[in-house]
Amino acid sequence: MGRTLQLHRFSGCMEIGVSLERALEITTQLMMEVTSEVVLLEDAAGRVLYSDIASKVDDPRFDNSAMDGWAVREADCQVTGATLRIVGTSQAGAGDVPAVGEGEACSIMTGAPLPEGADAIVMVEDSTVQDGSVTINGPARPGYIRRRGENLLEGTVALNSGTLLTPAAISLAATMGHGDVCVARKPRIAVIGVGDELTPPGKPLSEGAIYESNTFGISSLVKKMGGIPQRFDLIRDSIDNLRDVLDEAAKSCDAIITSGGVSMGKWDLVRRIMEEEGDVRFWRIMMRPGGPPIFGSWKEKPIFGLPGNPVSSHVVFTVLVAPWLSSSMGCDEASGPRLANRVRVLMEEPLRGAPGKLCLRRISIRQDGDALVGTTRTHQGSGNIHSMVAHNGLSLLPPGNDCDKGETIDALWLC
Ligand code: AMP
Ligand code: MG
Fold first, then answer.
1. For 3-32, b where at least 16 C-beta lie within 10 A, e where not — what string?
2. Which atom of ligand 1 is nearest to the CA of 197?
3. β-pairing, 408-414 with 393-395?
4. 71 - beta bridge partners?
5. Using one digit for the tens of pLDDT, what is the confidence trace for 250-262?
């Protein structure tokens, strides 16, 4: 049966040659079902919150000092050299705190409760102590008092569902009194490499064989996005073998990523089996590199057929699969895990665009004064994975647009 016929058969629901924006839109029609689990806070770094978190306490819990020094009454310290009687010490964690009356001072440590009667703090550096008294040589500052609840009031939701738990967010959850948190379960993603020529690295190579790299790269990307990659044995170019592995992957995983076999070639079996037996939503994106991806579902599980060229598979994962994984886990663009940030870059060299296609050339981005500046280093072939290591960014040249030296362009700065 001819390819044209097959495409014809599916053209009702399948779009061919879509823009990246349209491809992203179509992927949202088939999201993964991600459920939740409760994990200890110490295990929660890098996870995505599944519910809002409200504070169980006021933060700070009580008025306290921001400095080591003296708790005083501001009115007693109007003149330099005022001498105040020492009434005791307020230490962090201590319960009993002496009150401060007129003409009195209480030694106070950072974070210790403010004594009753005190309304300002003098830094220890601005004082001298002699015979049970302290002489004040510097300003008494109300601003050195951290007021109860000034950061957060009990009941305030300070972390929202869909937030990536960064180290700072973990600290905040602990500050709010949460020893465990409800997070999105890590999605299990099947990673399947397809091609007769592929040999696992470390094994002897036969004539015409090459080392397989994409399933390793894609698995690392899945991990970086907070998923659990499940690598399957490499698939020879056999449609029966491919069908069996896709079936197995659909049973054990939440989504499937394949690499290779999605172009126009006779042996591009992922495309063929998807067209004949799967549900295809789109094939091909108007971008370079990374033109041939296919997307749809296999046995009810979302499936991304990525191109085999190593750069293409990385680029398509970065711009298409990563945002999908992030929103499947309940994140919005700003707060979720991601692989790149959109920036404006001043190019030091000209870049060639691609007619009719968004062009993602590998560029090196660096800060130079106020500007981000871009250059290119290695050659740009989509088979040259070294270009993804030697550079840290991707141009976003609109279809048909070249970039002159000195022009500022949109780009992705890879994280
Ligand atoms: P394909 O998309 O199957 O036509 O493959 C395009 C190019 O990528 C060919 O040169 C393949 O040898 C290469 N390739 C395909 N899959 C992989 C892989 N898993 N690792 C490394 N290279 C690959
Ligand atoms: Mg192939």
1. eeeeeeebeeebeeebebeebbebbeebeb
2. 12
3. antiparallel
4. 106, 121
5. 999 999 999 999 9
Q: Residue 113 C-alpha to ligand 1 middle, in angstroms?
A: 65
Closest listed ligand to the CA of 313: 1
Do the Cβ atoms of 84 and 74 come closer than 8 Å?
Answer: no
Which residues form ligand 1's pocket by a CB distance below 6 Å?
193, 195, 197-198, 210, 212-215, 259-263, 265, 307-310, 383
Ion ligand 2 — residues with CB under 5 Å? 195, 260-261, 308
Structural contact between residues 200 and 234, judged by C-beta atoms closer than 8 angstroms:
yes
Q: Based on DSSP, count helices (H) and strands (E) in the chain, helices before strands.
A: 9, 28
Give Cα 253 distance to the centre of its chain: 22
- pTM of the complete model beyond 0.70: yes
For residue 265, give the ligand 1 atom closest to its CA: 4
- DSSP, residue by residue, 150-175: SSB-TT-EEE-TT-B--HHHHHHHHH
SS3 content of the chain, % helix, strand, coil (to 5): 25, 35, 45
Q: Which residue is associated with the tokens 């996870």?
A: 47
Q: Which strand (E) or helix (H) includes residue 248?
A: helix 239-252
Amino acid letter, 364: S
Sign of the Cα pseudo-torsion (301, 307, 310, 316, in order): negative
> Comparing C-alpha atoms, which of 61, 41, 329, 50 is closest to residue 167?
41
Dist. CA 249 → ligand 1 center (Å)? 20
CA–centroid distance, residue 350 to ligand 1 (Å): 29
Task: Please give the mean pLDDT across all residues of the chain.
Answer: 94
CA–centroid distance, residue 205 to ligand 2 (Å): 17
Residue to probe by mutation, ligand 1, list 199, 205, 206, 214, most atoms within 8 Å of CB: 214
- Mean pLDDT over residues 280-299, rounded? 97
